[in-house]
Amino acid sequence: MTTESSSGPIFIQGILPRSGTNLLYNLLRLHPDCGVAEPIWEDYLLEPSDLLMQYVGKVYHWWESAVPDWGVEETDRDALCHFLGKGLVSFLQSRAGGKRLLTKTPCVASLENFFTLFPNAHLLILVRDGRDLVESAARSFGWDRDETTRNWGKAAETIERFDQANRDRDLNYMLVRYEDLCLDLDAEFTKVLGFLGLDVAAYEFDAAQGMPVYGSSTLSATKDWVHWKPVDKTSAFKSVGRWDGWSRRMHERFNWLAGTRLAAFGYEEKKYQGRQRTWKLYNRIVDLVQKYKPYRLMPAPLWRLVKGGGYQLLRLGDADIRPADGVA
Questions:
Q1: Taking a C-beta distance cutoff of 8 angstroms, is the pair 45, 36 a contact?
Q2: What pLDDT digit, counting tens, does each position of 18-74 carry?
Q3: Residue 78: exposed, middle, or buried by beta-carbon count in 10 A (0-12, 13-18, 19+)?
Q4: Nearest Cα to 125, choosing from 137, 112, 136?
Q5: Closest among 106, 116, 105, 107 to 166, alpha carbons compared
Q6: Pairing, β 34-36 against β 10-14
């Protein structure tokens, strides 16, 4: 990671939706040197980039094997990737009003391709405590807690693998924790501005502190969804520790699916002592139920019997396992 000044584009890649990409994006938009590619609020350039890698590989293979006397080299393949990435950035940059491009995506799929395509960019990788993210996603979108936990664990592994492969290389990327922005904005954001080579003196920290909230599952939630209109912060807004009210069952389930990934980002792993065999059995049963969905084969009377008996054992987070459509 370097901290040299640059006029290159700024990419924010969030670990998943509900990781705080809107917060970091809107904070950086307050800087007078940053511009955004309206109305493309999330670029998603990286996620399908394996298709570009396949394209480059096939073209280079033809150059190398079909016409060997051309004398092409590995650097030509890399250059082709760079020029493709430059074209993508140019498309977004044309919408940024002559300012330094700022763009975001709440996804880290294909993260390993980032600097192959965008070698002159600055990359901010935003992470959030998986328990808070799962809770926020469940409240905001009604997402299944188990599925979101698995997706967070996979995305966390992607980030870990990327960092381990590149931490000793001279690449412009920085890991940012959502919680640090929320709990100590001035200090953490000063680090971000320094890394990006943006003038700290030109930034209005008072405006950042008073910035409204966008898309909060607490402040902007309607009956069925969240809206993205700005909402003033109130005492009801709690950005960190939303999982405080989780039951042991919910913690045990998260730990089973993705708990080992918390420590890599400095989050405290929630651990319980005693009855470990019982909780392992519980999690294995839930895994089997999710995989094979035996309740879908049950006639309605038998389902009612199971629901009235050992049903509580098989609850997933706060979302119950429910029978298939048409089963009472």
A1: no
A2: 999 999 999 999 999 999 999 999 999 999 999 999 999 999 988 888 766 777 888
A3: middle
A4: 112
A5: 116
A6: unpaired
> Which of 61, 58, 18 has the alpha carbon at shortest distance from 216?
18
The structure tokens listed for 64 are 């190398």
Q: Can you read off the two tokens belonging to residue 221? A: 């939630």
Residue with tokens 């309607």: 222
List phi, psi (to 5°) of 35. Answer: -130, 155
- Are 102 and 36 spatial neighbours (Cβ–Cβ below 8 Å)? yes
Give the span between the Cα atoms of 241 and 183, in whole angstroms. Answer: 11
pLDDT tens-digit readout, 126-174: 999 999 999 999 988 999 999 999 999 999 999 999 999 999 999 999 9
Which amino acid is located at 95 in the chain? R
Looking at residue 317, its pLDDT comes to: 42
For 179, the 3-state DSSP assignment is helix
Question: Is the distance from CB of 135 to CB of 243 less than 8 angstroms?
Answer: yes
| Tokens coding 217 | 């599952």
What is the total residue count of the chain? 328
The residue-averaged pLDDT of 268-279 equals 74
Q: Which regions of 151-266 does DSSP assign to beta strands (E)? A: 173-177
- Which segment of 72-76, 122-126, 229-233, 278-282 scores lowest on mean pLDDT? 229-233
Query: How far is 18 from 126, CA to CA, in rounded Å?
Result: 11
Residue 189 tokens read as 């954001």
User: To which H or E segment does residue 102 belong?
Assistant: strand 100-105
Q: Three-state SS for 221?
A: strand
User: Within a 10 A sphere around the Cβ of 286, how many other Cβ atoms?
Assistant: 22
- The closest alpha carbon to 182, from 237, 261, 249, belongs to 237
